[in-house]
Structure formats: C-alpha cells, structure tokens
Amino acid sequence: MSRSPSETVWFVTGSSSGFGLCLVRQLLAAGYNVSGTLRKPDLLAELVTQYPDHLITPEVDVTKPEQTSAAVDATIAKWGRIDVLANNAGYGQGGMIEDVPMDEVRAVFETNVFGALETIRAVLPTMRAQRSGVILNLSSVVGLVSYRGSGFYAATKHALEAISESLSIELAGWGIKVSAIEPGPFRTDFAGRSYKWPSKRMSEYDELYQVAFDIYERMNGNQAGDPVRAAKLMIEVAESSNPPLRLPMGRFAYEETELYVESIESDRETWKDKLLATDYPESG
Questions:
Q1: Which class is domain 5-252?
Q2: Which sequence positions are flagged as catalytic?
C-alpha cells in the first residue's frame, strides 16, 4: 500500500485477546486507524481513551452477520474506507473425529469459517470500489497439516485456506491482495481458554485425550512464537506490494510445512505411473 499509516484503516475481528489484541496495539502505536471488533467492547475501553481518534470498537459476534454489517458501516462512516481486513476471530476445537458432538462441530465452523466469510463479504464492496485492499485470513499451520485430536479445528482452517486461495485469484482484477497467515504455537491464550474440548468424550479415546491434555498443558505459556513479532510481520505483509499467499510463521510452522510438502511429493512420485494411468489413453 502507498498510503501513510494515518490514512490507512484496518478492520480487525476478535480484538479482545491473542493475535487480535496484539495486532491492534501495534497498529495504534504505529499511527494506523483501527476498527477493532469484539463481543465485549469494554475490554478495550482503556485503548479507546488512549487513542480516541484512531480506534473504534464495534460490538460484533461474527456469527451474527447483522452485527458485522453494522460494524463495517460504522467504520466507513468514521474514516470513509477499509484498507486491510484482519480476519482473526475464532477459537480452537479439540477432540477426536468420532466423538465430538455434532452441535459443537457446527459451532466451530460457524465462527471460524462462516463468520470469517460473512466478514469478507461485508468488506469487499468497499474494497472493490476503492480498487485496493488487503485481506489477512488468520489460518494456522493446521490449515495444511492436521494432527490427532485437532481434526475439526484443522478442517475449519483448511476451509479458510481454500477460500483465501480462490479469493486471491478472483479479486486480483481489483488490486485486492489475500494472505493466509499460518502460525504455529505462539504465546497467546490459544492453548488455554481459547481452545475447547468436547463436552462429552468416549472412554475408548481416554489415552489419546490424556496425551493431548499433557501436550497443551506443557505448551500453554511456553510457546516459542512471539505474538508481537507476528503482529509486526502481519503489518509488513499488508504493506508489501507483493504479499505472499501463505505465511507459515515461526520455526515450527516453517518446518512442518516443509515436511508436509515433502510427504505430498513422496506419495505423488511413488504412485506416479498408476496415477497417470487413470486418464483415458487417448488423452495423453
């Protein structure tokens, strides 16, 4: 982007904690204008007092599209534009594929996928009219690589990856850029209160659950990733003339992505002749 921070407007969802709050703080310190949405605006009251001309905090539950639309309208009424959308609102859902209650599966999709999609659709008319904009979709390394006990959370991030990839092509003609942000473990509250476990669990999976609980207990508060550095990198990506489609942040995500690509290539090459042989002979 060629606009100065004081002329640039960010729309950040899920601003009350984690990456969202960290990003809002870094943006305000750098002089940007921020519409930070969250379910409880009082949580950012101190920041509003500190930056009254640069921060508004619309009340938004991303599963309620009417609130998202109202927040977009309030942002445009305040500053006349939206330059960057940071789609951050979401939460983790742990559990085994067989036993997570379906209403809890639907709930995490409502927030992580449909809430993000409603927000994207709400800001796009403005970005297309401007013929510019950046969309940062907060995905995860599990948007590419899924692990035991994280299948449904990973599925929501896989969906966000696909949406991001299609958007990057569909919106190119308007000069709108899209990046999927793929962090590994970062020192936010994600491994704590922002990660849910199923309300009912099958005893057959007790051993696997215990392994998962132990991992998250050890991880919480000890993650290698620094959310402040992550927020600064997201700002740099948004300001870039050629932002990456995917951004695996932190050593863990970087290395896991590399292993994932190698695994795909290995399967592809091992089965190459048989894979190619599934075409009609005359098509070759």
A1: alpha beta
A2: 139, 153, 157
